[in-house]
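A common beginner's mistake is to predict each chain separately and then try to dock the pieces by hand. The better habit, illustrated here, is to supply every component at once so that their relative placement is modeled jointly.
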Amino acid sequence: MSQQILRLARPTKIELIRLRRRLATARRLHRVLRDRLLILTQELVALYREVVESRLRIHEEIIRCEKELVRTSSYVAPWIFEEFSNVRIKSFSVVLGSRIVAGVRLPLLEHEVVEGHYDPSAYPITLKEVSECYEGVLRNIIRLAETEISLLEVGREVQKVKRKVNALENLIIPRLRATIKYLRMKFEEREREDKVRRKRIKQILTRKARI
Amino acid sequence: MGEDKTLEYLLERELRVVNSYVASKRKSLAELLREEHPHVLTLSGDVHMFRKSELILAKEVIGEDAEKLMLPIYVELIPAQTTTTGVIREEIATKLVSTILGINHATPLYVYPIQLAELRRKIGTLIQYVVSPETLKEIGDFEEI
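With all components supplied together, the output reads:
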């Protein structure tokens, strides 16, 4: 299929020049797309790894935090828990921004924590550890959300770009090459025919001149 | 003839897509560190945000030159090369990148795919890829078949 040639109205030199120009453009486009695909694929692989690692890390952290929480709750009254959770953090906000990688807009989530004012000596130290542990989990979940959405977006773009690269690589460029080759052969053939014709005419003219 | 126009259109569009996130005005590292939400506006009107942790890392690496380092750092892709190679042309940016990658400092600095992946991991939001139409001209117009 790739070796098919394009349908030409007339096999002329002008057509050959036009085809060569078209081939050059196709090659440029192919290079640009191929580079973009490479960057996006790198990003996709990195994001995929990050997602897997993040999920495992979050899972482990949750188990650790739960253990800490159970241990702490054995000697801390529930009302102290509640009071501490009210004073520990003043505000927790997530800023949603965007970053752009190789033409794809990806989300960027940055979390901001404002520590509350409290007397640390008034609460058991393990309470703070539990709180920090859960804060870490939350931070990782935010990062995971960002990574997973990015993974989907990049995957979608990779699919699109790959289709274009394949079309150029397996269809458009080979067809153009085959057509150019066909035209060249056609011109060479025409030249050979002309040469033979001229020789033949020369022979006939010489024969006539003798007579 | 129709295909000619389609290819030209696609090439133009692709270049526009790849280069649409070029910042309309770059900012220095020091300036970005002062901002609450460090960001730049792109030509397409989008907002490109920087991760604060990455900005702090850059500040630690280049120290006093924070005023001179303009962000985002442009990694110019060279499609004419057989393997995709990026080139960084700014002096301060090459200093930062070479320190992060642990390679010899040189200007311009050529960055290969494996190093690009590492850069992406460490300072992903500080770098942006651009394709220069000039480098595309290097791909031969007419090839021998």
